[in-house]
Amino acid sequence: MTTLAPPTTEPNLTEFARTNAVNWLTALVLVVLHVGAVAALFFFTWKAFLVAAVLYWIAIGGGIGMGYHRLHTHRSYRVPRWLEYALAICGTLTLEGGPIFWVATHRLHHQKSDQDGDPHSPRDGAWWSHVGWIILGRRSHNDTRTMAKYAPDLGKQNFYLWLNTYHYLPLLLSIPLLAWLGWSFGGMAGAVSMVLWAVCVRVVLGLHATWLVNSATHMWGGRRFATRDDSRNSWWVALLTFGEGWHNNHHAHPTSARHGLAWYELDLTWLQIRLLQWLHVAKAVRVAHVNQVPVLPAPRQRSAADSL
């Protein structure tokens, strides 16, 4: 499993979220996006809907599933550097933070899943695991220096250092392009429709879909493997996230590029990786099997570093 122990000379990463302070900037952005998503219902066009759907697939299926999660965090496969970088840029379009922040948080989640120190465990409350950990506590999305200590493989590359700090730029730069595209289809109304659907609706749905992996798939669903956490398989979360909902499978075999292990567990992200493998673009692809017994880590003993 690709995990990294937190450095003992730095504050524990979960301290960033374990306070009652509200991240007002993050909260404001989320409110604006949700208001825009509701407003989009009054500016519906099929063109805007289709563009939003394609961008949703690019951002969630490509940026999060193939990129941030299975490639950057777990190194389940290898691709050329240019494609690795491209997937990271796609990941920023979700507004879930830069690659270093996302990878560091997720590796810590695997280290301490549903234990003290898990950044987003439902054992601390369903609301907390879904969105509370994002809007409360220290905002660390742009704290590249600290976060890089938890993802040193990414922290060695200047591209990831820059992208993590300015992760919001690709999305901001996409807005005038989308507005121009909408304008070319339908004037001002088309521009408004395109931005509301391809940005607000898409980002809001993508955020909640990803957050459901943190919350719902640790509360509801089946458990094929007896992991030392509450992870579960959820077919409906898998549909929303292109395969990320087979979470119990993933926690049992975290470095597997395939999460839907049974033939009936649809995993579109795996099919995309498999296509790249067939094209000889993806290499060193790690794949677990449905009957494979997971190698579980030894129970983690609480150390002095946890109290730092």
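Second entry:
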Amino acid sequence: MKRQILLMMCAWAAGDSMAQTQSPAPAPAPAPAPAATPAAAPKDVTIEPANIAPGIYVLFGRGGNIGLTVGADGAAIIDDQFADMVPKIRAAVALLSEKPVRFVINTHLHGDHTGGNDAFGAAGAVIIAQDNVRKRLGTPSVNNGQPVPARAREALPVVTFADSATLHFNDDDLEFTHLPNAHTETDIVVRFRKANVVHMGDLFIAGFPFIDGNNGGTLDGYIRAHEAVLSTIDDGTKLIRGHGPLGNKAELQAYHDMLVVVRDRVAKLVKAGKTQAQVVEARPTKDYEEKYGGGNFNAEQWLGRAYVDQKTALENRKRK
């Protein structure tokens, strides 16, 4: 059953009255690091807003693309990049809204999408995310092979949900849907029901995706996430990528189809007993690298992860 986040707008000045989808989880056992004052962002980095629907913007900067809604109820952002970008994010929002950020929605746990949580949370913004974001941020973890300490209390989501929830804000319905074990185990998409806009987080980016197996991500789940979204959008839907330019249904379909082909090629090699080195040498990504590789694409690294992912999937199927 879909859970609802109900807002009592008139009570904001004295303190919001709102119903949470569940009681916040107990404070995690490990002591979190204290909230730090954001360092200054590099001077040459700017926030570039793009208006994609009435009252809805994408803020392009350093880190994950930010969705922004402004209107009579105030401002809400989807993701908040890095801690050092917070002053620039606030300045960009201030140009579009006289009111501060009331809500921060995290599409998943990674620091280039949640780095501003500490500052926005400390300032009183309500942080909303899938249950696993709170659990993961509240305990030490690993991101792209690097250890990540537990986050400060202010950075943790205070409203969480398991499968879905809705925020009624600025005359639209922001629908949050969990798509499990995709980029991570924490991913959601955010749909502006009336505006026909969907923020995909890192479930849709401009290049080959990073499948974070250490945080519950799988290539099969990533592909299933695309299928879930594709079945609910139309040719007029505007898709906010986690990284890269604004997208549409045709581009998401092409991205999905590419990953299915590459996944199937890797899976076939794994099933045939090929080693990781042999899978890398076969280069099943080769004919897609010009379009999706980019200058920093490391085929050996990406295919190495895909090999481990599909080998694990094969072993899991055998156990069943």
